[in-house]
Each structure stands twice: as C-alpha cells, then as structure tokens.
Amino acid sequence: MKLEARSVGWATGARRIVQDVSFEVTPGETFGLIGPNGSGKSTLLRLLAGLLARPSGAVLLDGEPLTSLSRRDIAQNIAVVEQIAETSEALSVRDVVELGRTPWLSALRPFGAQDRVIVNDALEAVGMAHMTQHRWATLSGGERQRVQIARALAQRPRLLMLDEPTNHLDIHHQLSLLRLVGNLPVTVIIALHDLNQAMGCDRLAVMDEGRMVACGPPGEVLDAARLASIFRVKATRLRDPADNATIFRFQCPGE
Ligand SMILES: Nc1ncnc2c1ncn2[C@@H]1O[C@H](COP(=O)(O)OP(=O)(O)OP(=O)(O)O)[C@@H](O)[C@H]1O
Q1: Distance between Cα 187 and ligand 1 center (Å)
Q2: What is the pTM for the complete model shown?
Q3: How confident is the model over 58-104, as pLDDT tens digits?
Q4: CDD domains per the record (predicted)?
Q5: Does 42 sit in the ligand 1 pocket, CB within 6 Å?
Q6: What phi and psi values does residue 130 have, to the nearest 5 degrees?
Q7: Which atom of ligand 1 is nearest to 210's Cα?
Q8: Which end of the chain is flanked by fewer CB atoms within 10 Å, N or C?
Q9: What pLDDT shows up at residue 176?
Q10: Which helix (H) or strand (E) holds 181?
Q11: Where are the domains of the chain?
C-alpha cells in the first residue's frame, strides 16, 4: 500500500507539534522515523493513521484521502502499535490478539475457523503462543509489547505502523521482531530510537522540533554532521567484517 503525506501538521493551542511534513512511502517499503525525544515522531504516526482530530494537510492511501475512508476501511488497511497500549486488564493474551480481527467481522461474518488460524499464526510469530491464557494484567512490559504486535499482525493490514516497538524487548526479541517486520509483505512505517537498528530501514525520515529535516537512504541521512547537530552525538562509523554493514559508535561531544 502506498501512503502519501502532503504538508501534514498538527497543533495544540498555540503550539505546533508537527509542521508541514511531506513524503511518500512506496508499497512494501520499510520507512523509519527517527529524531530526538519530543521531535514529533509519535504525533506524526498518529496523524498518518488518522487518529488525531483537526489535522492540517492531507494523508492519502493508494491515492484516496484518509478523510474519505470509514473507520472500518482504515482499520482493514492500517494497524498501529502505539507506545502505550490501553487494554482491559481482565483480558487474556488470546482475547487481545483476537481484537485484531474486529475490522473484518460483522453480524454476517462472525469470528470463525479462519480467524482462529490467523490469531494462532500471529501469536506464534511473536513467540507468545505458549501464554495465550495469561491475563494482560500479569504480563511483563516486553510480553505486552509482543501481544500488541500480534494483535496488529492479526489485523492483516496492508500498512503496519509501529511506535518504538523494540523499547521493552530483550535483544533476542528486538532482533527477531525487526526481522519479522522486515520480512512481512506489507508497507511498514516504524519510529525507532536505536540508530543502528534504523540502518536496516529502506529509507529514513529525520524529525526535529516537529519538522522533517531529512529523508532518504539511511547511509545518506545519517552523516556525521546531522548526527552532531540533530542528535547531539559524535558518531564513529565502523564496519562489521562479517557482512560489511555499517555500525555506529556514539559518544557525547567532549568525551
Ligand atoms: N496532546 C498533546 N498535547 C500537548 N502536547 C503534546 C501532545 N502530544 C504531544 N505533545 C508534545 O509534542 C511534542 C512531540 O511529542 P511526540 O510524542 O510526538 O514526540 P516523539 O518524537 O515521539 O518523542 P519520544 O521520542 O520522546 O517518544 C512533545 O513535546 C510533546 O510533549
């Protein structure tokens, strides 16, 4: 699915949180959003998913303005995993993941065997199939994160938006999640803090103070001058001899 952001913005009171952001994400692309704390990444993701009232500019999905689509149309196309997921404490892991099927169900099309297979696959994909009966309230931060990702996978979206999906995960689950997401046959927009992980995206948009200040392939966008001016770090580029990949080592200026 193709997504186009045209001069997207959002303000609260007199404060502009996101301003004049334009880019296109092509079908199948993994598009990363990076930027310092408070630079507007989560707000931009919410705008792209149509979750904020009174946005400015336009978001188009395969050429159709988001505003012309029903909530159900949007939910059949876009799944969002936010940083803080609100879920009833009493639900089981399976219940939460089954919620991902909601946009596809109706009185004439109740939850059935095919939905059960999709839910099982999603639980399997995030390594939570052994905990289906556990209650949400009892889960660790990383387990909750993986269940929310399974819910989004069960939605079978064409566009998956993830807000810092690795932030609660141990290193094994971080890497397996990124590999899982990278191999999905869908368009992905992902906000990330780890710039080494961001190097795995097809393209990156850099946010700073609510504006997009750069957009392009990771190797071009993450140059020493930008890392110093936007992220306020001194970066040394290293090469992994195993596969020739670029790795950054960061230091605070003056160290
Ligand atoms: N509903 C709101 N009302 C007021 N201010 C808001 C609101 N939502 C976001 N902000 C402010 O907008 C700025 C951008 O927030 P946002 O969460 O989009 O940044 P971010 O880049 O995702 O940050 P982080 O990396 O810390 O998660 C922050 O200063 C935040 O306090």
Answers
A1: 24
A2: 0.94
A3: 999 999 999 999 999 999 999 999 987 777 778 999 999 999 999 99
A4: ABC_Iron-Siderophores_B12_Hemin (cd03214)
A5: yes
A6: -85, 0
A7: 14
A8: C
A9: 87
A10: helix 171-183
A11: 3-89+156-222, 223-255
